[in-house]
Amino acid sequence: MNDLKEMLRSVLQEEFKPIHERLDRLEGTVAQLQEGQKALQRDVTELQEGQKALQRDVAALQEGQKALQRDVAALQEGQKALQQDVSKLQQDVAELQEGQKALQRDVTELQEGQKHYNEMSPNCKKVKKHYNEMSQNCKKVKRRCNEMSPNCKKVKRRCSKMLLTFKRDSKSWKQTWTI
């Protein structure tokens, strides 16, 4: 019976040997498939994590783009304000140049007036001297009139009127020639 057993075992081993080999190969293939499946799952997990990271990066890029658009809008507003400031400055410069021209005209007129005054000043001094002399003479005449008889009152009044007229005319003349 031992022999039979051994023989049966031997036959069975021979018959099952290809099945065992196939089974071994199949187990190896299943193990490889399971390893491949695990690797594939790891790859899928990495891809999903990469996709999430990519989505976060896209969201960050979109936020960056929005911020950049806001910055561009602010720069455009700043540029617009700067252009307005430049325009205002140009206008101010033009007004200053006009003011400078007007000031130059005024300076020229003042210089001409000063020149005219300098030319007239000696004449004014002469007129003032003559005025003072005439004033003295009028006072002398007035004194003489007082010394004279009462008939001279008429002459005195006339001298007073003359003196007043002369003073009024000389003041008017003085104002005209004084700069």
Protein topology:
Blueprint: H1 2-147, H2 153-177
Report on the architecture of this protein.
This protein has about 180 residues and is mainly alpha-helical. The chain has one domain. It is built from two helices and no strands. It is rod-shaped and about 200 Å long. The termini are far apart. The model has no long low-confidence stretch (mean pLDDT about 80).
- The helix/strand series, from N terminus to C terminus, equals HH
- Mean pLDDT level: 81
Oligomer: single chain
Number of helices: 2
Poorly predicted regions:
none
Spatial gap, N to C terminus:
160 Å
Radius of gyration: 63 Å
Strand content: under 5%
Largest sheet: none
What is the number of domains? 1
In total, the number of strands is: 0
**Class per helix and strand makeup:** mainly alpha
| Helix fraction by DSSP (H/I, runs of at least 4) | over 70%
Overall shape: it is rod-shaped
